[in-house]
């Protein structure tokens, strides 16, 4: 989906630069063209080639959002060149059993990351920013207080000792045991005794003060000493108790392990019960097998790089919440743009088909209403996202189901590259589609492509991967109907695009037959009838410019042939579909004749139905 709009946007921008620089025909070398494009129009980064690490909400463009098939003239569809990484032009399987082992492993790893994120509510809760670091003043205050508390403690012992030493200058001398043991006179005995007592008191006080002032360090030292001493104390061996304890521990080990495992299981169960529920496109993540189909889209968009895919999913979930997708789907935004994009029918493989009609913007009133200012462009963007969301929710996300769309881009009367407002709106929508809608387009078909678009596409093509180009189809005005009928049956293609689908007698369930009429040849179609009825048929030749006639030929030789439609040449500008009916009262056949006098092949489409006649 995104690739189609990307190619359209790049083509317009490139042509705008070409017109300004007047160098369309002055690019003889391929290198010059690619250099100009590379400088001014950065090509989309293919999802299969070196995807960069995604950033929140803004990631590298991924191809899966809009891949399509390339055909230079609409004929080269089955190009069998090798595809890097994908290995096939066919749409990848959505069944897990069909995946290679490496992709299965990546899917399991992604599911594990998502489960962990759901348990932690990471999808809907934005991560809180880290708290600011505290100011330096707050950090310095506790340290200053600690220093102030320590300073008095460190000064106190020295002051006490100094005072005591000043008051008792003999304390150091008296402390020596030799002096105390010497004989003394009677008058000196009491003095010596008092000195000794005073000395002991001083020592006790000093010791007490030191213990108090040392604080925790002294206590820790004592504890360490006690521990080290106690560890060195030999214990009497008790072999009987040790053996019994060992046996008991061995017996208890298995039960402890079982309890731990059971505890972990309970924790995981509780976490899963408390996990948040997240849904994308109506599919709850990890709830059932449909979730695997969703996850595979993100993995393929990031070349099965698990962390990149996980980041993309988280960003998508958050963007959907911020943009209000669930509320947007239910809103009524008016019907002004219903002809710009619409869903109609299915292709031959069952994919729903979306038609984007760029020519509608030639209507100046509609163009101004959609793009004249930023507010209107935002409204257009919301309408485009709403249209896409409603279309996606009709898809089948079961494994093996149809979970992609086919895009048909009608460039007839498309506004030229000078429409700046349209280019801006397209660019903005493209970015959102690339970031949040991966792998939703199976094929991109461009019809009524003007000459300048094809010329610019040749300049852009070298920047696209083979996988992307394999899903693009380009067809000019003369080949558009034929190209569509290659992928979509006639009853599913709108009349304006060369099919038979319109309001009237027939519906999309009434199958049509396609026949190729050779150049310069006649072709007849017969409808046998065996009973009375009312026969109705529709016939169309794509491009007409042939003669058409119809008649009823009865089975009985006695009856006459009845001319229903006289042969006449039908011009290409006339009514595209001819509808006739004829009431038949006898067995016979209705014969249609197509006379192609031109030198080109013609595509004939027809279908019929009968109603019982009461007459």
TrEMBL record:
Domain GOLD: 481-610
InterPro entries: CRAL-TRIO_dom, CRAL-TRIO_dom_sf, CRAL/TRIO_N_dom, CRAL/TRIO_N_dom_sf, GOLD_dom, GOLD_dom_sf, PATL, PATL1-6_C_GOLD
A GO biological-process term: cell division
A GO CC term attached to the entry: cytoplasm
GO molecular function annotation: lipid binding
SUPFAM superfamilies given in the database record: CRAL/TRIO domain, CRAL/TRIO N-terminal domain, Supernatant protein factor (SPF), C-terminal domain
Keyword Transmembrane helix attributed: no
Keywords for the protein's UniProt record, in alphabetical order: Cell cycle, Cell division, Cytoplasm, Lipid-binding, Membrane, Transport
Compositional bias ranges of the Basic and acidic residues kind: 1-20, 50-59, 101-111, 135-157, 176-188
PROSITE patterns, sorted: CRAL_TRIO (PS50191), GOLD (PS50866)
CRAL-TRIO domain residues: 330-505
Subcellular locations according to the entry: Cytoplasm; Membrane
Primary localization class, coarse: cytoplasm
Pfam families xref list: CRAL_TRIO, CRAL_TRIO_N, GOLD_PATL1_C
Family that this chain belongs to: Belongs to the patellin family.
Name assigned to this protein: Patellin-3
Organism for this UniProt entry: Quercus rubra (Northern red oak)
